[in-house]
Write a structure and sequence with these properties.
Rossmann fold; Guanylate Kinase phosphate binding domain; alpha/beta; four-stranded mixed sheet
């Protein structure tokens, strides 16, 4: 059997930077794309960066139990991972998978007998003041209400991570140091 490495985070923790750096190392990870109902951003490519689908399609797939996990992100858009994109197509073929995961699904996944002993959970942690700086730099147009929702969400997620995750990486470190910590984790799993 393959192994899943679930990466969890708060907004602005550098999740995509870590995943990009892992891809650049050619470590033979399968990195399944998420399905999202939010509008595609101008720099993104559909079916390359994510699978952008309508909310109606997404909701119909929820009813058909297609998702390993899904969430309503920032109280408006659906994000999810199809079960077959992780388990059927990769884990059962003895491949290692790297997948971002909303921490709110971790407890449900921990109770899924199909995933018992097949995954490692890693949380990218940053303090609230750093989160605010990064969000303001990245999303200068964000409303105060949206910023407060993200801060509130990050505090809840950080608290859950402290009790649910196998590893917590300090994401305020330099990119290279965060990558090195991730590599230490996967090398200890071999």
């Amino acid at each position: 059997m393959g192994h899943i490495y679930f990466i969890m985070w708060v907004s602005g923790s550098g999740k995509w930077t870590l995943i990009k750096n892992i891809k650049n190392l050619n470590l033979n990870f399968h990195i399944p794309l998420s399905y999202k109902t939010r509008p595609i951003r101008e720099w993104e490519l559909n079916w390359v960066d994510a699978n952008f689908i309508s909310k109606d399609v997404f909701l119909s797939w929820i009813k058909k139990w297609y998702f390993l996990e899904y969430a309503v992100v920032h109280w408006k858009d659906y994000y999810g991972t199809r079960f077959e994109d992780v388990i059927d197509n990769w884990i059962n073929l003895w491949k290692n998978v790297l997948k971002e995961l909303d921490i709110n699904w971790l407890e449900k996944i921990k109770n899924n007998p199909l995933l018992k002993w097949k995954y490692t959970t890693i949380f990218l942690s940053i303090p609230t003041d750093v989160l605010i700086q990064r969000i303001k730099k990245r999303w200068a147009f964000m409303s105060d209400d949206e910023l407060q929702r993200r801060i509130k969400s990050s505090i809840i997620e950080e608290k859950k991570a402290r009790t649910l995750c196998d590893f917590i990486i300090d994401a305020t470190k330099k990119e290279k140091e965060v990558l090195e910590e991730f590599l230490k984790i996967i090398n200890n799993k071999k």
